[in-house]
């Protein structure tokens, strides 16, 4: 696992020597304490990666994350790598590759690189139909099923990026559960990029990320910061959420969740990596719990042991008292579709 960039880097026998522009005179100086170094070459003058460089970087990213970078992503990869060249002062893609691959695995530049390559745009209340199901069906069923004095709900937002999905879930929960003080809510957001996780912890979002939030929910659960086009989640939401760094190719050491969001991330994995990720995810999904994926990710053939309710919604079978397999108190496919139509 990649350490926090604030952690000091000590010399070791296998540490790669950086280019002259990055050489530290004090080996105890941490990466983030170094003064910015002017770029050797303007990134605007650097052409795209060559086909050979693209393949080298694609193989590197795949080994680290299980994510495949296709040849069609040459322009995107080039643009994102240029930002690392600008930040480090390294003159070329090949030099940066050589420097990166000589670094120890916990060096903060690895996190900066993976953050740059794997971060994608996200925003609150993305995929309206899914959130209608979450608000009007899932939360209603959960509330009916738990009648004790203390009720629990555990949700994992996998590949959470800057926390938009996790805070959307928190917003819906705050709006729909009338006896919220009696609930122990856990919404865990994880992402491979430490920078994304740190941003999520700030609970702040720009106007673009907030554009789909219903006005009544925006007024109730967010506050606009003075002199800035930025909104911050109120404590009623932040106390439900926590964030940490995690690679989906690794198991997550957590108690089971009632619902897992794994949206718009599996499209970047090949079949082998998808199987590893789904295996890790399903291990921490409660029997009877739900998995929400992106509508276009096409993983139904890899979820043969799950009950498919929608192209984007799967439920983990739950053993009954007689030993047969049931699907808990969830609706049938027909009744679920009808309820979504009524909510739409």
What kind of sheet is the major sheet? 7 strands, mixed
Low-pLDDT sequence parts:
1-44, 321-344
Oligomer: single chain
**CA distance, first residue to last residue:** 42 Å
How many alpha or pi helices? 11
Shape: globular
Query: What percentage of amino acids are in beta strands?
Result: 15-25%
Indicate the structural class: alpha/beta
Q: Which range best describes the helical content: under 10%, 10-25%, 25-40%, 40-55%, 55-70% or over 70%?
A: 25-40%
Q: Largest beta sheet: what is the strand line-up? A: 6-2-1-7-8-10-9
Number of E-state strands: 12
Q: Averaging pLDDT over every residue, what do you get? A: 81
The run of helices and strands is HHHHHEHEHEHEEHEEHEEEEEH
Whole-angstrom Rg = 22 Å
Element layout with pairings:
Blueprint: H1 51-65, H2 74-88, H3 93-101, H4 108-118, H5 128-145, E1 151-157, H6 164-176, E2 183-191, H7 194-202, E3 204-206, H8 215-221, E4 222-224, E5 230-233, H9 235-238, E6 241-245, E7 257-262, H10 271-283, E8 285-293, E9 307-310, E10 313-315, E11 318-319, E12 325-326, H11 333-343
Parallel strand pairs: 1-2, 1-7, 2-6, 7-8
Antiparallel strand pairs: 3-5, 4-5, 8-10, 9-10, 11-12
Helix pairs in contact: 2-4, 5-6, 5-11
């Amino acid at each position: 696992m990649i350490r926090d960039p604030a952690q000091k880097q000590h010399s070791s026998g296998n540490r790669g020597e950086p280019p002259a522009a990055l050489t530290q005179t004090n080996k105890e100086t941490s990466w983030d304490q170094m003064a910015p170094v002017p770029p050797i070459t303007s990134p605007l003058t650097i052409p795209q990666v060559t086909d050979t460089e693209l393949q080298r970087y694609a193989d590197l990213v795949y080994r680290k994350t299980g994510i495949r970078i296709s040849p069609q992503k040459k322009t995107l990869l080039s643009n994102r790598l240029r930002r690392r060249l600008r930040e480090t002062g390294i003159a070329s893609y090949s030099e940066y590759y050589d420097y990166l691959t000589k670094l120890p695995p916990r060096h903060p530049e690895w996190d900066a690189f993976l953050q740059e390559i794997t971060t994608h745009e996200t925003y609150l209340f993305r995929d309206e139909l899914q959130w209608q199901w979450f608000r009007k069906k899932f939360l209603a069923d959960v509330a009916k099923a738990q009648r004790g004095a203390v009720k629990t709900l555990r949700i994992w937002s996998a590949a959470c990026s800057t926390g938009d999905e996790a805070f959307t879930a928190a917003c819906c929960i705050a709006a729909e559960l009338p006896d919220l003080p009696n609930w122990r809510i856990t919404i865990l957001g994880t992402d491979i990029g430490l920078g994304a996780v740190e941003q999520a912890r700030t609970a702040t979002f720009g106007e673009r990320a907030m554009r789909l939030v219903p006005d009544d929910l925006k007024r109730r659960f967010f506050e606009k910061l003075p002199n800035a086009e930025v909104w911050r989640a109120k404590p009623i939401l932040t106390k439900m959420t926590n964030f940490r760094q995690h690679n989906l190719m690794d198991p997550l050491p957590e108690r089971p969740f009632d619902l897992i969001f794994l949206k718009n991330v599996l499209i970047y994995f090949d079949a082998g990596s998808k199987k590893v990720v789904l295996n890790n995810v399903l291990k921490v999904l409660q029997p009877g719990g739900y998995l929400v994926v992106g509508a276009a990710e096409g993983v139904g053939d890899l979820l043969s042991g799950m009950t498919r309710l929608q192209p984007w919604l799967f439920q983990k079978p739950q053993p009954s008292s007689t030993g047969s397999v049931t699907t808990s108190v969830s609706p049938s496919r027909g009744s679920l579709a009808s309820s979504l139509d009524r909510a739409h």
